[in-house]
Write a structure and sequence with these properties.
Strand content: under 5%
Shape: flat
Number of helices: 3
Helix content: 40-55%
Largest sheet: none
Distance between the termini: 42 Å
């Protein structure tokens, strides 16, 4: 069954993704990881920089 992502957001449904391999671990620094995941969670760049 196809799910419309827009409808999920409107109704407050959270969709997660948990990969079996940590593909970015070797490519990013600790600070870059924190920034990346903060942006995914919707935290603004200005808020992250604080």
């Amino acid at each position: 069954r196809m799910v419309d992502i827009i409808d999920c957001r409107r109704e407050g449904v959270n969709i997660g993704y948990c990969p079996q391999v940590d593909a970015l671990d070797d490519l990013l620094t600790g600070e870059e990881h924190l920034y990346f995941y903060a942006r995914i969670r919707g935290i603004s760049k200005r808020e992250i920089d604080q």
